[in-house]
Amino acid sequence: MSTKNFLFVNRKAPYGTVYALESLEVVLISAAFEQNVSLAFIDDGVYQITKGQNSKGIGMKNFSPTFRALGDYDITKLYVSTESLAERGLTVDDLMELTYEDADDDYAEKPSIILVNREEMAAMMAEQEVILSF
Predict the structure, then answer these.
(1) Which tens digit of pLDDT belongs to each residue from 92-102?
(2) pTM for this structure?
(3) Which structural domain, as residue segments, surrounds residue 75?
(4) How far apart are the first and last CA of the chain?
């Protein structure tokens, strides 16, 4: 099986629907099959990786800590829309610190989050072979 570039586009808030959790599960499955997986967080999808999520009041499991494991699956590119953050009054400081260990750089810890504007997001999307939107 050849490796393909997979992009998972996350547009929905983390709770209230199954989209965010389903996306995360499919991302992990794709990575297990050694595909080149990256994620994009657009619109309300940026809320999926915000700090301090507490879902007890709605009776749903808080799955946000799972994003910290993505680096262990060689998922190191999380593209975040700067416009989507700004439209929601958020900055990069409101996001979880998501990192990976770079095996090519003596396992130095590096950030996984890449802030991009709409033009950069469109260019990156054009390079993908498979795009799945949630």
Answers:
(1) 999 999 999 99
(2) 0.93
(3) 5-133
(4) 25
CB 117 within 8 A of CB 82: yes
CA-to-CA dists, residue 85 to 108, 122, 124, angstroms:
27, 17, 18
Instruction: With CA atoms as reference, report the closest residue to 90 among 99, 100, 98, 80.
Output: 80
CATH number of the structural domain spanning residue 52: 3.40.1260.10
3-state helix vs strand vs coil in the chain, percent to 5: 40, 25, 35
Structural contact between residues 40 and 81, judged by C-beta atoms closer than 8 angstroms? yes
Domain count along the chain: 1
Q: What is the pLDDT of residue 54?
A: 87
User: Partners of 10 in the beta sheet?
Assistant: 41
Name the residue with higher pLDDT: 26 or 60: 26
Contact 134, 23 (CB under 8 A): yes
